Automatic annotation (TrEMBL):
The keyword Acetylation does not apply. Keywords: Detoxification, Flavoprotein, FMN, Monooxygenase, Oxidoreductase. Pfam families: NMO. Belongs to the nitronate monooxygenase family. NMO class I subfamily. GO terms for biological process: response to toxic substance. This is Propionate 3-nitronate monooxygenase. Its cofactor is FMN. It catalyses: 3 propionate 3-nitronate + 3 O2 + H2O = 3 3-oxopropanoate + 2 nitrate + nitrite + H2O2 + 3 H(+). The keyword Hydrolase does not apply. It comes from the Bacteria. Signal peptide: none annotated. One of its GO terms (molecular function) is nitronate monooxygenase activity.
Length: 351
């Protein structure tokens, strides 16, 4: 079955879900134009998930996806004790001061439980539930299917794609190492799972029988055409949409995307404690040079304190400037223009 038929969309083009940077406006703009809009729910409570789903439905009657992070405990990730916490806060002291932010007191608020999130997400019954950082449990896949929800998983290696297909997902995102944001590896450390899209996509296509969605380094018609030539059934794009005025990224972040070059991005654990691709700025440099990084999700919560203030001030040197290696190709300010550009690379599949 083609991706369009599986999901109920006109175009096999997917908006990458931005955990923390999604907006109702961008998600619905992509869905309304015939693609699959996605909304990242990282850190959302059940009440906020219900409100977000209602807001999306108030803006479009087209299919959309909700995205969740599976609870994956990676090596080095663990709750921190109070003394450790104080050390991690102190390591970020200069950045709190630079942002004019208060040092967060113990304990810092951490994300809500996955159980709370998945219950609300299933009840919201979007057209698609997509997941990163693992294989969704069989009972969740079954519950989604019982509600008519399509399930999509995300792989960074062929082995992960095989595990997802065996787990009953309906489609697999093959996320090349060029992609922006967190590397959602789950079978091996992210540093050992850095396969580029040109190599990853055709190998995943040859391995699984479900539709494959190519992601990473795609921002215009040429990337779309290449992905389909490699055997992909659909394409997922993040950075080009993140740069549009409909995204929730601060203007300072969007401006840096439009001026970045492919060689400007780095993979770092500095901002969240998990490996992610973004632009190196003052915050990344100082955290890496200091050598003290709290485990996820504590580091993410701590940097979030000064990132919020920096976003309000327009200080791009203190933000998580997530972007992929295709950032220099992000040339449009409007989501509909991005989708139109991508659609020009789609093959004629009428025959």
């Amino acid at each position: 079955m083609r991706f369009e038929e599986l999901v109920g969309v006109e175009l096999p083009l997917v908006l990458g879900p931005f955990g923390g940077l999604s907006s109702v406006e961008l998600t619905t703009a992509v869905s309304a134009a015939g693609g699959l809009g996605s909304f990242g729910l990282y850190g959302f409570t059940a009440d906020r998930i219900r409100a977000t789903a209602a807001a999306l439905r108030s803006r479009t009657d087209r299919p959309f996806a909700l995205n969740l992070w599976l609870p994956l405990e990676l090596p080095g990730e663990h709750p921190v004790e109070r003394e450790e916490y104080a050390r991690y806060v102190e390591a970020l002291g200069a950045l709190f001061d630079a942002a004019g932010a208060e040092r967060p007191a113990w304990p810092i608020a951490l994300p809500p439980s996955f159980d709370e999130q998945i219950e609300a997400a299933l009840a919201a019954a979007p057209a698609v539930l997509s997941f990163i950082f693992g294989v969704p449990p069989a009972e969740i896949v079954e519950a989604a299917h019982d509600r008519g929800i399509v399930v999509i998983g995300t792989a960074t290696t062929v082995a992960e794609a095989r595990a997802l297909a065996s787990g009953g997902v309906d489609a697999v995102v093959a996320s090349g190492s060029e992609s922006a944001g967190h590397r959602p590896s789950f079978l091996a450390p992210a540093e050992d799972s850095l396969v580029g899209g040109l190599a990853l996509v055709p190998q995943v296509v040859d391995t699984v029988e479900v539709p494959v969605i190519a992601a990473g380094g795609i921002a215009d018609r040429r990337g779309v055409a290449a992905a389909f030539a490699l055997g992909a059934d659909a394409v997922q794009v993040g950075t080009a949409f993140l740069a549009t005025r409909q995204s929730a990224a601060p203007e300072a972040h969007r401006a840096r995307i439009r001026t970045a070059e492919a060689s400007d991005t780095v993979l770092t654990r500095a901002m969240s404690g998990r490996l992610a691709r973004g632009l190196r700025n003052r915050a990344v440099r100082e955290i890496e040079e200091g050598g003290t990084i709290a485990p996820f999700p504590v580091q993410n919560a701590l940097t979030g304190v000064f990132r919020r203030t920096a976003g309000e001030r327009g200080d791009d040197e203190l933000l998580s400037l997530w972007m992929g290696q295709s950032a220099a190709l992000a040339r449009h300010d409007d989501a509909a223009e991005v989708l139109a550009e991508l659609a020009r690379g789609l093959p004629d599949r009428s025959r």
